[in-house]
Amino acid sequence: MSLKMIDTINNGSGDGWMITNNLRVSGLASGIDTETMVKKLMDAEKAQLNKILQNKTKTEWKVDAYRDVNTKFLDLRTSMESLRLESTFTKSKLTSSDSSKVDVTLSGIPSRSEYIISSVKTYQPGTPSSVKFASTSLSSETTELGTGNGFQFTLNGETISLTAQDTIRSSITKINELAAKTGVTASYSSGDQAIVFTSKDPATSMTISNLSNSNNVLNLAAGSISETQNDFPAGNTSGATGVSAIQAVGGQVTINGTTLTLKNNELTYDGVTFTFKNDMPAGSNVTITKKTDVDAIYDTIKGFVDKYNDTIKALHDKVEEKKYKDYAPLLDDQKTNMKDKEIELWEEKAKSGLLQDDQIISSALDKLRTALYSNVSDVDSTKMNKQFDSLADIGITTSSNYKDNGKLEIDETKLREALENHINDVSLLFSKKYDTKSSLNNTANNKDEFANSGAGWRLYDQINETMKKITKTAGTSSDSYLSKALSQFDTQIDSWEKRLQTKEDYYWKQFNAMEQAIQKSNSQSSWLTQQMGG
């Protein structure tokens, strides 16, 4: 296709040789592969843009890496935050000298270390009220009451109407549909050919009244029954038999000389829940003893130590991670010729070392070590026991291997002995809090609070300060340092893309002008040849 034909298509006219600015003609006259030529020129022009794109990707990866670090600090804080609380070190366990008679569980904070149960008369629960009405007239649940045998009655204030077409089964259904209101259910005993009424619990009484037919086919009779009374005409022709109700009998227990009433066989008293299983005559004592729950407190401390060791190893690995300078983030067009596994392996090396020698992490690791290893002081020297003012005093020390980077080690025997015999001192070592009366101060930014507060508070505050720094650097807020950097990259990318588009249009315009000139020259040459009879 000639340039003149293309120009005709675009301008609707064959007059003139001007090519539109947007028309891109690839070497029609010159034979040059213009597209390839322009692409190579633009590849050179795009070098700076590609560098910005790669820096943006690396910054996004760094944000993700920082957030992973923040998650590790959060997990570490979760594992140790209870160590700054006194309640962690007041955990107790109870033992019973005879659990076959009295069992115990903690339900609060007991004020005593020992409870003596000197006598028990267990609570005897009552039984629900029950009354049975037998009727030989109805031998099957499906037999209808029959013509003229319909009647009404009132059960605990609710009226129930039975028709001639009702059977024992449907009658029971009507009664049970009102059970939520009456507190009474009915059932059928085939052996006795009887309907049995039963209250839902011992405290619910049962009253049948307002019988429209006292000689009803079901032999229902009027009367009342409860734990304390029964006026059903049991044993007469009404058919009311099997009437029963047993009143509950309250119990009593004597604990440390104080007699208490039992409304069931479980009693919560002074932070202890007692379960009484058998009667105990006076003098047959059962002793309940409260002791420090060494196992629970030890497990809490060990859980923190394990998490601390895992965390500092992971963070040291990050700041010491090798950088592969030859592995820059891949551009989209580079990925098109690579397999997924190749991309994965490349990016693994490209991401390596993003936090190498990072000052936030390195500083945090140093400060955590200082928080753990420094002795706990006290402005009131009578409060802090100098024999237990460091973690080493209770069996928590650092590894002697420098390659472990301050890994903590526990002497289990020494720690358990301290928990068993010096629990108050251990509690102060972790949970002691010195207050400078300023809400802005904490152990991470105030030397007095640091020196006079326990290891639990020091760690907690230092972790919080570190997390704040990381959030300020790589948080989701647009004010974070790396968020601002990403925003600047976006601005630069937008500017470069516009600049490159202008440059590409310029190259095409130049090549189009060249093609036009060559085409014009070729046309003139052809005309001269024709004039000369060539």
Automatic annotation (TrEMBL):
<feature type="domain" description="Flagellar hook-associated protein 2 C-terminal">
    <location>
        <begin position="252"/>
        <end position="522"/>
    </location>
</feature>
<comment type="similarity">
    <text>Belongs to the FliD family.</text>
</comment>
<dbReference type="InterPro" id="IPR040026">
    <property type="entry name" value="FliD"/>
</dbReference>
<keyword id="KW-0964">Secreted</keyword>
<protein>
    <recommendedName>
        <fullName>Flagellar hook-associated protein 2</fullName>
    </recommendedName>
</protein>
<dbReference type="InterPro" id="IPR003481">
    <property type="entry name" value="FliD_N"/>
</dbReference>
<dbReference type="GO" id="GO:0009424">
    <property type="term" value="C:bacterial-type flagellum hook"/>
</dbReference>
<dbReference type="Pfam" id="PF02465">
    <property type="entry name" value="FliD_N"/>
</dbReference>
<dbReference type="InterPro" id="IPR010809">
    <property type="entry name" value="FliD_C"/>
</dbReference>
<feature type="domain" description="Flagellar hook-associated protein 2 N-terminal">
    <location>
        <begin position="30"/>
        <end position="109"/>
    </location>
</feature>
<keyword id="KW-0975">Bacterial flagellum</keyword>
<dbReference type="GO" id="GO:0009421">
    <property type="term" value="C:bacterial-type flagellum filament cap"/>
</dbReference>
<comment type="function">
    <text>Required for morphogenesis and for the elongation of the flagellar filament by facilitating polymerization of the flagellin monomers at the tip of growing filament. Forms a capping structure, which prevents flagellin subunits (transported through the central channel of the flagellum) from leaking out without polymerization at the distal end.</text>
</comment>
<dbReference type="GO" id="GO:0007155">
    <property type="term" value="P:cell adhesion"/>
</dbReference>
<dbReference type="InterPro" id="IPR010810">
    <property type="entry name" value="Flagellin_hook_IN_motif"/>
</dbReference>
<keyword id="KW-0175">Coiled coil</keyword>
<dbReference type="GO" id="GO:0071973">
    <property type="term" value="P:bacterial-type flagellum-dependent cell motility"/>
</dbReference>
<dbReference type="Pfam" id="PF07196">
    <property type="entry name" value="Flagellin_IN"/>
</dbReference>
<dbReference type="GO" id="GO:0005576">
    <property type="term" value="C:extracellular region"/>
</dbReference>
<dbReference type="Pfam" id="PF07195">
    <property type="entry name" value="FliD_C"/>
</dbReference>
<comment type="subunit">
    <text>Homopentamer.</text>
</comment>
